[in-house]
Sequence to fold (476 residues):
Amino acid sequence: MKLKHLSTAMILATLPATGVFAAALDRSGQSMSAFLQPGNYFEAGISILDPDVAGKEDGGSATRRNIGDMADDYYFPSAALKLQLNDKFSFGLLYDQPFGSDAEYSGNNAFVSNPGSDTVLSPAAIDGIVTKKAIQLLEAGGIPVNEQTLTGAKGQILASKPFKDLTGALAVANGYLGTGGTKVEVDTQNLSFVFGYQPTQNFNFYAGPVLQTVKGNVSLRGQAYSLYNGYDASIKETTGVGWLAGAAYQIPEIALKASLTYRSEIDHKTNINEDLSLLNFPGLTSVLAGLDVPASKLQAINSEGKTTITTPQSVNLDFQTGIMANTVAFANVRWVNWKDFSIQPYKFGKVSEAIGGLVGRPNGFDLVSYADDQWSVNAGVGRKLTDKWAGNVSVGWDSGAGNPVTTLGPTEGYWNVGLGLQYSPTPQTFLAGGVKYFWLGDAKAQTGAQAGTDQYVADFSDNNAIAYGLKLGYKF
Fold:
């Protein structure tokens, strides 16, 4: 069973739409399969995702309203050129869009501003502040803290002039909160320059630099985000450099091929254009001072500085082997280090440090972070049906990156099934198409201030997505 007899099925195993709805911001899956094709090879593909992610307010939300579909459709292209320079050396250019996000909340829920009812601090948050002050008052007077004394102390604080002045100022501040709905759009592009060395027919060692760009926009709106209701961040396109390295082993006689690829973290240092509508409230400093925010932290909330965004390192393990005439089995395992990933825009971070003590986070918190690393597995079988037609079936699983998870991407992994079909009008060319259906994992959604706890503000369940892919290939 020679490798050339299975080349059609092998290429089919690399159809687009393999990642498209993975954990966190992961999209393309960063495949190396094009570079590992025999001879000279070119391909171009496009993947389209149509997700449906809806839920309801839950957890710490004061209401229990439904949340309509917040996940936008999106598409992303990919392309690859691989040149076999001689028997020992090869070179490849791989283009993909590895990470991204597209989401927007609408309707009447905690992620859409409602100027008539939104408040800088929720009633629960104010009660927590009053309770804290009451305990401090009792302890300062040497009075035992129990239900009766605590109730009396809280009443004393609520009736005091300083607290009435504070609530009055907060009522005015409510008018400076945002309008519209929460939305996020993040796009990345990767261009990998891969140099390969093949000491024998069986081994292939490869490495090279990776050029990556990142850009995006984030808007936080609605009661769920408290005083961040009205926060906007615009990330201008910025460029960073990383690297990849890997090794592959093949036995052409049985169509066996295995590869292991590592991709490094990539740092992006940028000035993010940030705006928080509440900072336009003239009395904000005095309000925060009334909430016992230290003066040093008050001075920092209007400062400017750079933000570092580090996209995560990853490892891909790919395997395929012939299992009978004209048939291959294939599998991919991917690990992405999302647990160490976070985004804290500069001004967002300074505000979070200033008000973090009010929500039990004195050191501040991130805009986005994840609790777990991502693991995903895709496996299937590809078969050459005729000289011109081939097909495949596959199943996939993704672990997600933790639960609860950010409100900007409220799913926990998935299961999927996929079908693919390929037509080869000539031995050198092919057109392949694929479709995958995703059962998205249920998740509880939490804001950045809640990350690292079991608190959440919404519950998303029974969601799904469908992905389509198209790829053109040419061997020369």
